[in-house]
Amino acid sequence: MKLPLSLTFLLALSASFANNPADFQKTITETEYANSYDVPSTSAFPFTGKVSSKGVRLRTSPDLDSHVLRELNQDDYLLIVGEVENFYAVQPNPNTPLYIFRSFVLDGVVEAQNVNVRMGPSLSDPIVARLQSGTTVHGKVCSSNAKWLEISPPENVHFYLAKDYVEKVGGPQIIHNLHAQKESLDELFVSLHIAINEQKQKNYEEMQIQEIERIIEKVRSEYPSFKSDIRKAEELFHGLKEHFLAKKVAFLEKQMHADVITVNDEPSNKASSTSSENRSEKLEAVAAQAESPARIETTPEAVLKWKNIEYARYLGWTEEHPEQPISDFYNEERLTATRLTGEIAAFECNLSARPGDFLLKQKGLAVAYLYSTLVDLSDLEGKEVSLVVVPRPNNDFAFPTYFVIAAE
User: Fold this and answer.
1) What is the mean pLDDT of the chain?
2) Closest-CA residue to 79 (of 88, 70, 71)
């Protein structure tokens, strides 16, 4: 026998809540919900508003005790559609996902009265609207909980924020244009992520970060209203530059080792000074490119290693400070420098990845690795000193590594 539609629906609904009658009662009888406020329509609305401060809270109702949906960024844009006392009513972005229990929907039509629409696919998520029987809904099954249907915000859904933190910037067309721009910007971000990942897969010699810089500049120039997206793009570019710098350091270290092996493998000829002169020229040429006033009296290999590493860091810095001398680079480093005290000791390690040639000891125990192209640490070996230092990568060794800017 074919059951009537209403009876079929009630049987399905009862089965859905058979294991938890309290949830059924909560869903059906709940009378208070966030958007049960009259938002009068006047000639002053709608308009495009801009958030004037950081951390402004967007709420489910015009009440300081109501649920906080999220904190807005300064310069976020919103469509203001009305006001309730000291709060503005905000129309949600059409892409905001809301949720309705699937048992109340049959063939895209709501089959009960006062069906709750929630912020998330859970009975603990705040209610933001109610739908009546006969309302048509378009949505998709929630990927994280198949008992719920994900839908776009109904027309009667509004969110709220305090009036004091909103600046009127123009009519509603502004935000409609911004929504279109945001879609275009999101597509550009997809291209940006792909381009950055492609660059990270390349060798140092093949990397072309100028291409990425052009995309970042396009974000800045063509989408000035999207401050948070601009910051996000700049952070992505900064991460790529760090990656580029790390590969550059590795490349220069490899070159340095190749130069040292070539120098050491040259045939010895006491009757000729050619080999000795070539060796000196090679070492001086690599060391000179760092423009550093160092006078390290250690092995030529160590001189090359640390000068190449520091010069690579300097080159990375010059991308944002073009044509500035290396002395300015170290002057800026001093601004974030810290002071360490202890005894200098040689670090006996032949590994190419060693993080320093010296140790800093306190009470006889090693606490840090040290290297420098500005201070001759070998002159300070065995002495208690006070050092001005900045952090450097420790290559996964036991202690932190520091570059010594000055010693006292």
Assistant:
1) 80
2) 88
